[in-house]
Structure formats: structure tokens, C-alpha cells
Design a protein that fits this description.
Layout (H helix, E strand, L loop, with lengths): L4 E3 L1 H14 L2 E5 L10 E4 L10 E6 L2 E5 L1 H7 L2 E9 L14 E9 L2 H4 L6 E2 L4
Parallel strand pairs: 1-6, 2-5
Antiparallel strand pairs: 2-3, 4-5, 4-8, 6-7
Protein name: DUF779 domain-containing protein
InterPro entries: DUF779
């Protein structure tokens, strides 16, 4: 199975640090106003994905949710989660006070990859 999301070593190190300090985490990437399309790292239970938002996979045992409308735009793309030094667009993400910002790099899936993609999970409140 081809993963829809992966992470760089720097992102994995940052996630490990945040998990030590905050416990269970997840990511949410919206296409909205406050945070732009910057992925937000949040504590489990602090925010709930909307109906039909899409979990594209996990990074270091953390679900990675994407806004349903943004997913429609990026459904043919592989996401690579990275982290850079500096403060990004939004201040809601847990890494922000530590002078870091998660970011996503995208690439389109090849035709061969699209035949073997990991299964998506939709938020249906079931």
C-alpha cells in the first residue's frame, strides 16, 4: 500500500518532543482563514474534525486529518510533513511557541501509485 502521508526526520523529532510534553496528538490541515493551509498539531480532544473531513493516514501514530474541501483539491497528491524554524501563519499549532512551524510538501501520485493507495477514513460520527 502506498502511504498518502509521510514525515521527514525533523518532523518526527518534533512530534516526539510534542508527544512527551502534551500526550496524544493529531494533525488537522484546513483550507481556511486563520491558519491558511498550514498543518496544525493539536492535542487529541481539543478539536474535532468536521463531518466528511478525511484522515489520510498517520504520522508517528498521530492521525492526519484534512478539511474535506481541501482534500478534494489535493486528493491526487502525496503529502510530506516537514518542520522549519520560525513562526508560521497560524499560532494554534503546538510547535509554534517553540519557534517551529510544520509545513507540507506535495507531489502528485504516479498512475501506478494511484492503484495501490492506502484506504481513507472519513469523519462520519459513527
Amino acid at each position: 500500500m502506498i502511504k498518502r502521508i509521510e514525515a521527514t526526520e525533523k518532523a518526527k523529532e518534533t512530534i516526539a518532543f510534542l508527544k512527551e510534553n502534551f500526550g496524544a496528538l493529531f494533525f488537522y490541515q484546513a483550507g481556511g482563514c486563520c491558519e491558511g493551509t498550514q498543518p496544525q498539531c493539536l492535542e487529541v480532544g481539543s478539536f474535532f474534525p468536521r463531518t466528511n473531513d478525511v484522515c489520510i493516514g498517520q504520522v508517528e501514530d498521530c492521525d492526519f486529518w484534512v478539511d474535506k474541501d481541501l482534500f478534494e483539491y489535493w486528493k491526487h497528491a502525496h503529502f510530506t510533513l516537514d518542520v522549519v524554524e520560525g513562526f508560521g501563519v497560524g499560532g494554534f499549532s503546538l510547535e509554534a511557541p517553540y519557534g517551529k512551524t510544520f509545513k507540507i510538501d506535495y507531489r502528485l501520485f504516479t498512475e501506478e501509485e494511484t492503484l495501490d493507495l492506502e484506504t481513507l477514513r472519513y469523519n462520519t460520527f459513527d
